[in-house]
Amino acid sequence: MLLAAVPGVLGGAASLQARDLPRDKDRWLEVKTPNFRLWSDAGERRTRAAAAATVQPLAGPDTLYRLGDLLLNAGPEEHAAAAEHFHAALAANPQHGLAVAGLGQLEEQAGRRREALPYYEKAVLLSPNEPHAHYLLGRCLLEEAREAGRGRAAERDGSHEPGRQGDPAERAAAELGRAAELAPELADAWALLGLALLAVDPGSQRATTALEAAQRLLPARSDVTLNLALAYARQGKRQEAGAMTERARAMGAAREDLERPGEELLLADRNEAGKLVAAGQLEAAIPILERVGAATHRKDLAELVAADLGHLRAALARQKFVAAYNQAVEVANHGETAAAIGRLQELLATNPEPTDAAQARQLLEQLQARRKRH
Q: First vs last Cα of the chain: how many Å apart?
């Protein structure tokens, strides 16, 4: 490995340029550190590792942390060196929250998210005003919430209760909200905050606001655009949801992802039908549910809507039976026996529920007996 290291603080020595290095078939890389500029033809990973090792003896805790963060995403071979830098930063300053967070990131990258979580929690305690620490903790908690959600879906129990004390999604929303508050330019914090809030409260305006901020900062991210479309759809905002869906389509989003906002709009329609039912407007709710049932591609939603329609139609039939029966009783009470008999016969021809039919038939027989006596 051929490596040139030049102190960056010395103006004269810093005049060395890449063109001054030997010519060979390999591509030379330049890496800058707080104290040095380095050139190497040994590849990016090895160059960065060498750069970190070269300047570690000169560094304070902040620089040691930055050197570890230089190596964090380089690959598994450099993780051990990154861990050494984070531990060195903590030896120099045991209260260095970001160095603690760096150790958490190494655990998470190794697939040990549960082990990473305590590091992130400690990092937030040590550095309460550091947005990146809150972001890392919030991101990890959101992954915990997603995993819990997948487990519930596998069990098919539908037991998730938004806002439950200790709910990872709720905790994630709090941490990501703090990160976005401390660093409004942190686009990923806004994007994940929106997702966390959608999990906590599907129709949340806060979720929409967070995703709007993320979309402004990340206009080319189709996932952010689609999530904003979902947020609009859950609030029943058809025009806005449609616009975001079309924008995501233009970005090349997958067809199954593009269908999700439409399905959310159908869910919003079902909720609207539910409000009509609660207000006693059963007949107005039925065509809405029929349209939802015909349009959805989701088997579970289609089954729910079919059940809704069955209950509503039964309830409407019951209402109509009660109204017709009461009218027959009222007519009979006015002495119009023949007219009451005719109405009951018409009512029985509609095939009411067995219990209702028995009640109508009993009254009909009583009226027919009365008529014979007279």
A: 120
